[in-house]
């Protein structure tokens, strides 16, 4: 799949300027991903997928993002849903007391993904961000299922996915925050709100929800699992984007090299040094992401693994923004023209630090930890 990602990346790059300009969904990139079997990347082989682990996902995400960060970011949402579902081992299911019907439903969702369905994430809300403990979208048990009502924002790929992971809270017991897989169709309405600085082609629009879903849509089959899962598998909530933004940073270096070579600027010491520093910074951030990913596969939930997950997100976000800015400066004003790859990459890279956990939140988490506190509970605001 990594080779396939490398093969597809130049095709994504060729289409990136147009989808960025129009803020349109990269439909052809997604057709390529579907045809090449990427929607089953995280699905276990027994269910027809490629059975990738987190480290393999990180390598794939990096390569896809070198082609188009927006495409890689939308795909990241699908990988997060399928990766988190696949990560529920039998032991974990036992420990959480998950009913057998929920495991059967999980397998059905994963099989559908291997067959070409793809899932988006509708978690964030206006004024709340992705803080699960503050969700205003609600669900209520009804005959045979749940009624979900609310509004989401920043939903990448909204209007194009086959189903949406929706986080909601039970108003009768606000401590219960649960996640549902809601199929596209009646009851979901997209409001086209995403006209953003960067990652424009993610089409991260608002999604209005007023829908009744069957009981099988409740992921895990037990209410109140959302916060538990966030703490058990922070890599999907915190660090999966990291590989995407390191890929964006590397794409900025690649674009700068192409630009300065074409213009004969490569002999200028200041330009060379900028490229050299950027190359080293991207390589270092990439190593941190790979180290975090390796540890997630080997010792998920371990405190040192979790530390690396937060480090990786922090380094990827800040490195992408700094490197893209420096590469634009090395290339000069002509690279600022609309449609130049560095102009898009500069804007796309800016989003890295803003995605949760933001660089500031990662730094705070690591600082509390270094000072001997409990980073999950000693922050000034709830982490989730
Ligand atoms: C390109 C892109 C695509 C996205 N796609 C999706 C998607 O598909 N699905 C989805 O659900 N969401 C998506 N998001 C949204 C994202 O997941 C976050 O929910 C959103 O960026 C957070 O919103 P916010 O910045 O408004 O709020 P906040 O997270 O509240 O951040 C606002 C400010 O408060 C600070 N802050 C927040 N929490 C703390 C804390 N605990 N301690 C100290 N300071 C804190 C932050 O550092 C920041 O400065 C996307 C975002 C982007 C940029």
UniProtKB/TrEMBL annotation:
GO cellular component: cytoplasm
Highest taxon, organism lineage: Bacteria
Presence of the UniProt keyword Nucleotide-binding in the record: yes
Domain Acyl-CoA oxidase/dehydrogenase middle: 120-210
Metabolic or biological pathway, per its Swiss-Prot or TrEMBL entry: Sulfur metabolism; dibenzothiophene degradation
Domain (Acyl-CoA dehydrogenase/oxidase N-terminal): residue spans on this chain: 3-83
Signal peptide interval: none
EC nos: 1.14.14.21
Cellular location(s): Cytoplasm
Gene Ontology annotations of biological process type: L-leucine catabolic process
Segments forming domain Acyl-CoA dehydrogenase C-terminal: 241-352
Principal cellular location given in the protein's record: cytoplasm
Catalytic activity: dibenzothiophene + FMNH2 + O2 = dibenzothiophene 5-oxide + FMN + H2O + H(+); dibenzothiophene + 2 FMNH2 + 2 O2 = dibenzothiophene 5,5-dioxide + 2 FMN + 2 H2O + 2 H(+); dibenzothiophene 5-oxide + FMNH2 + O2 = dibenzothiophene 5,5-dioxide + FMN + H2O + H(+)
One annotated GO molecular function: 3-methylbutanoyl-CoA dehydrogenase activity
Record's keyword terms, sorted: Flavoprotein, FMN, Monooxygenase, Nucleotide-binding, Oxidoreductase
Keyword presence, Repeat: no
Family note: Belongs to the DszC flavin monooxygenase family.
Protein name: Dibenzothiophene monooxygenase
Organism this protein belongs to: Actinoplanes aureus
């Amino acid at each position: 799949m990594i080779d396939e990602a490398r093969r597809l990346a130049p095709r994504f790059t060729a289409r990136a300027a147009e989808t960025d300009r129009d803020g349109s969904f990269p439909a052809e990139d997604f057709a390529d991903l579907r045809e090449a079997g990427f929607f089953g990347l995280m699905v276990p082989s027994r269910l027809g997928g490629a059975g990738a682990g987190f480290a393999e996902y990180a390598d794939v995400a990096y390569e896809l993002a070198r082609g188009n960060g927006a495409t890689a970011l939308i795909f990241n949402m699908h990988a997060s849903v399928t990766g988190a579902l696949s990560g529920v081992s039998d032991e974990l299911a036992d420990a959480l007391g998950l009913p057998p019907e929920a495991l059967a439903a999980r397998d059905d969702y994963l099989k559908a993904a291997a067959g070409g369905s793809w899932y988006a994430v509708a978690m964030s809300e206006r004024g709340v961000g992705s803080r699960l403990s503050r969700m205003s979208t609600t669900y209520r048990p009804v005959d045979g299922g749940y009624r979900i009502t609310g509004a989401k924002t920043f939903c990448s790929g909204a209007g194009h996915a086959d189903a949406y992971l929706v986080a909601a809270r039970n108003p009768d017991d606000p401590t219960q925050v649960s996640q549902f897989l809601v199929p596209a169709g009646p009851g979901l309405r997209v409001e086209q709100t995403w006209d953003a600085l960067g990652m424009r082609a993610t089409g991260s629009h608002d999604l209005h929800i007023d829908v009744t879903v069957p009981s099988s849509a409740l992921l895990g089959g037990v209410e109140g699992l959302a916060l538990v899962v966030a703490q058990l598998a922070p890599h999907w909530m915190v660090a999966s984007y990291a590989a995407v933004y390191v890929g964006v940073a590397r794409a900025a270096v690649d674009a700068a090299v192409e630009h300065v070579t074409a213009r004969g600027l490569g002999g200028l010491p200041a330009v060379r040094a900028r490229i050299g520093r950027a190359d080293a910074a991207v390589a270092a951030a990439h190593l941190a992401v790979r180290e975090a990913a390796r540890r997630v596969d080997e010792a998920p939930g371990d405190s040192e693994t979790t530390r690396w997950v937060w480090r990786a997100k922090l380094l990827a976000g800040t490195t992408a923004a700094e490197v893209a800015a420096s590469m634009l400066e090395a290339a000069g004003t002509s690279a600022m023209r609309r449609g130049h790859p560095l102009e898009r990459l500069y804007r796309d890279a800016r989003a890295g630090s803003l995605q949760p956990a933001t660089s500031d939140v990662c730094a705070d988490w690591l600082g509390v930890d270094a000072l001997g506190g409990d980073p999950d509970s000693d922050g000034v605001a709830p982490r989730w």
